[in-house]
């Protein structure tokens, strides 16, 4: 990306989007950020233009892309496992509409390169090595199949535009991402933000879904933002790349780490009526290291401390 480029970021007020916009501004790029209903945390900046609108509206997407050189499409209808179960259509339909509208608008406006933010949820539940080429080797997990299929379809859309029209498109699949600016809503939050919210309230007993033995990998959002910039600069052939290589930890140990940082000693209980999920979900990070030179810089404990500090200051 040339230094005078105009860059569009959708989902600009989201977790990764906020970190990405701030990183791009620090690099002196001109940024147009699309926001919707979510609160944003940006200070006034002469290089930042914020526009509010609905990406399910194709005309709005066309206007958002006018005069833009590069597009980072991060916007998604977010939701926890609970929301996926209760409101599957409310997640899948707007996600697919936003993805197609943005891709089509970017094509029509002849942008130089487009980055699509996919998801680790595209991977099947029964594979041990989550290498990029294995994503379509089986069906995605039932517990979040709507967002999984939406992301798979949108990856295929990107590959179709590249194949037919030659559009330069990068596809990234971030691992479980966390950090300041995350969602701390009971129905929409993921595991780290849910644990932080419970811990800062000094909830006792501290309940964990399942048996707590499940292993997950976590990557700090600021590192993912830097990985996306690397992908935008180095990729364009729609070959998906995992943004992974963070810290892997058992869920019960994650809870213990958060509780320790906040300094209280609740009784930990496991709710075996709730789903444990898959025992181990860790993305293969070899391609991102080799192709992008990507390696997360922020350790889990350091990132948790930053996230907790931000949450306490803003809630």
Per-chain topology:
Layout: E1 6-10, H1 15-26, E2 30-35, E3 48-52, H2 58-65, E4 70-73, H3 81-86, H4 88-108, E5 113-117, H5 145-165, E6 169-174, E7 176-178, H6 191-200, E8 206-209, E9 215-220, H7 221-234, E10 241-243, E11 247-250, H8 251-262, E12 268-271, E13 280-281, H9 286-292, H10 300-314
Parallel strand pairs: 1-2, 1-4, 2-3, 4-5, 5-6, 6-10, 7-9, 8-12, 9-13
Antiparallel strand pairs: 9-11
Helix pairs in contact: 1-7, 2-4, 4-5, 6-8, 6-10, 8-10
Describe the structure.
Helix content is 40%, strand content 18%. With 315 residues, the protein is of the alpha/beta class. The strands form 3 sheets. Strands 3-2-1-4-5-6-10 form a 7-stranded parallel beta sheet, sandwiched between helices. α1 packs across α7 and α6 crosses α10. The longest helix is centred in the first third of the chain and has 21 residues. The radius of gyration is 19 Å and the shape is globular.
Which key terms come to mind for this protein?
alpha/beta; 315 residues; 7-stranded parallel sheet; globular; 4-stranded mixed sheet
Radius of gyration: 19 Å
Number of helices: 10
Describe the biggest sheet? 7 strands, parallel
Task: Tell me the series of helices and strands, N- to C-terminal.
Answer: EHEEHEHHEHEEHEEHEEHEEHH
Mean of residue pLDDT? 92
Strand content: 15-25%
Q: What characteristic shape results from the CA principal axes?
A: globular
The strand line-up of the biggest sheet is: 3-2-1-4-5-6-10
Number of strands: 13
- Helix % is 40-55%
Provide a compact summary of the structure.
By secondary structure, the protein is of the alpha/beta class. The chain is built from ten helices and 13 strands.
């Amino acid at each position: 990306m040339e230094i005078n480029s105009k860059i569009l970021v959708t989902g600009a007020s989201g977790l990764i989007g906020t970190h990405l916009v701030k990183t791009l501004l620090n690099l002196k790029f001109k940024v147009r950020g699309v926001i919707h209903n979510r609160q944003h945390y940006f200070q006034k900046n002469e290089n930042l233009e914020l526009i509010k609108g609905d990406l399910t509206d194709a005309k709005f997407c066309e206007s958002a892309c006018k005069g833009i050189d590069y597009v980072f499409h991060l916007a998604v209808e977010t939701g926890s496992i609970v929301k996926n179960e209760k409101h599957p259509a409310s997640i899948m339909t707007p996600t697919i509409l936003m993805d197609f509208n943005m891709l089509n608008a970017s094509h029509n406006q002849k942008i130089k390169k487009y980055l699509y933010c996919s998801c680790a949820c595209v991977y099947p539940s029964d594979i041990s090595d989550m290498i990029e080429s294995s994503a379509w080797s089986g069906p995605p997990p039932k517990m979040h199949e709507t967002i999984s299929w939406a992301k798979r379809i949108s990856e295929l859309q990107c590959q179709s535009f590249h194949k037919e029209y030659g559009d330069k498109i990068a596809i990234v699949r971030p691992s479980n991402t966390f950090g300041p600016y995350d969602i701390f809503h009971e129905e929409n939050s993921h595991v780290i933000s849910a644990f932080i919210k419970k811990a800062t309230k000094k909830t006792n007993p501290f309940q964990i879904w399942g048996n707590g033995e499940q292993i997950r990998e976590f990557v700090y959002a600021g590192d993912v933002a830097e990985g996306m910039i690397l992908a935008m600069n180095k990729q364009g052939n729609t070959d998906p790349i995992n943004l992974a290589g963070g810290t892997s930890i058992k869920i019960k140990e994650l809870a213990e780490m958060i509780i320790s940082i906040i300094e209280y000693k609740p009784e930990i209980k496991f709710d075996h009526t709730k789903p444990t999920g898959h025992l181990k979900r860790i993305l293969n990070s070899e391609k991102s290291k080799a192709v992008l030179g990507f390696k997360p810089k922020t350790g889990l404990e350091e990132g948790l401390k930053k996230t907790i500090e931000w949450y306490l200051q803003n809630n």
